[in-house]
Write a structure and sequence with these properties.
Helix content is about 45%, strand content about 10%. The protein is an alpha/beta fold. A hairpin with a 5-residue loop joins strand 3 (about 180-190) and strand 4 (about 195-200).
């Protein structure tokens, strides 16, 4: 009885069938058919199973739908032996190449030719994978292939942050092509304080992202509590390892959901409209452009009013909140 209860408890369909049976006994056939779509014939069949099994609830578990007579392989054993011999002598011989040699053998022996996919199925079914020293040939049915290392689980967020204090950073990368020359703008912003930093790089790599993070950390007037980014490759590798080493949670948004990064996306538009569009004449003069960008960031963080901060600049707001002194500002 205990094993029967375990089998019944692990199957949702059996539990639903018991629920329908009880409903039928209480309300009748018409109500049961309207509610569950089960008529008297189906109910009778389930009742008969219970009676024949002596009331064992496990009898309500659906039976296997596997046919009693399954289709077997029509490939002759001689052909399988030929393929096995080829693989033993030449372990790295693929199914396309085996087919060429097998077709010649079929023509000589009078066998029916088989397709390339059938040869691949024969290799898997009969485990015709023979390892040699050196580089290991991939066996799709091996334990390694079935249980290969999974990617580290990423911390996902479904909604944009709404923090009541600083320390929650959002980052993003914008690629801009001007006169055929690519520039990558790496930006980060505090979701509450609106303190932002942007730097330009010629390549988009995790090492450059790590460099940007270190530079952001040196000027950020607070403690970084979390870092949110998209799923770009620049946010993995050395940068992700840097955050893990410092114990900072790295949060990832879901793919194709830029609204979760709403603060940094809005900052990218502000940067585009207020600075980049007005400095396209010097964008290829990197020292001059970087100097102008630094001056704009100082203006953005220390002087520019923000509606979300009560028309105060980020650092003025931080001083009013007691986060830093006027001398530090």
């Amino acid at each position: 009885m205990l094993s029967s209860l375990k089998g019944y408890g692990a199957n949702e369909i059996a539990q639903k069938r018991m629920k329908i049976l009880k409903f039928y006994e209480e309300y009748g056939e018409k109500a049961t058919k309207e509610a569950f779509g089960a008529d008297r014939k189906v109910i009778s069949r389930w009742r008969r199973r219970l009676q024949e099994s002596g009331g064992r609830l496990e009898s309500l578990v659906p039976l296997s739908t596997r046919p009693h007579r399954v289709r077997g392989s029509s490939v002759p054993a001689e052909m399988v032996g030929f393929i096995k011999g080829l693989r033993e002598a030449h372990p790295r011989l693929g199914k396309e190449k085996i087919k060429v040699l097998l077709d010649k053998e079929c023509q000589e022996k009078g066998w029916r030719r088989v397709s390339t996919s059938t040869i691949g199925n024969i290799l898997k079914r009969h485990q015709l994978f023979f390892q040699r020293s050196g580089r290991i040939y991939h066996d799709p049915t091996s334990h390694w292939a079935r249980t290969r290392r999974k990617r580290a689980k990423r911390l996902r967020v479904k909604h944009p942050p709404k923090p009541s204090e600083g320390g929650y950073i959002l980052s993003d990368t914008v690629e801009r092509v001007t006169d055929g020359i690519k520039d990558y703008f790496l930006s980060a912003i505090d979701a509450r304080l609106k303190f932002a930093v942007t730097l330009t790089y010629k390549r988009l790599t995790s090492r450059n992202m790590r460099d940007f993070y270190r530079r952001f950390r040196t000027v950020y007037p607070g403690t970084i509590k979390s870092w949110q980014s998209d799923n770009g490759s620049e946010n993995l590798g050395e940068f992700d390892q840097e955050l893990a080493k410092e114990g900072i949670p790295h949060l990832f948004i879901y793919p194709y959901c830029p609204r979760i990064n709403t603060y940094i996306e809005r900052y990218n538009r502000t940067l585009q409209e207020e600075f980049i569009d007005n400095h396209l004449d010097i964008i290829h003069d990197k020292p001059l452009f970087s100097k102008a960008l630094a001056e704009y960031l100082i203006f953005y963080n220390t002087q520019r009013p923000h509606k979300s901060l009560g028309l105060k600049s980020p650092l003025e707001f931080l001083v009013d909140q007691g986060g830093m002194s006027q001398m530090s500002l």
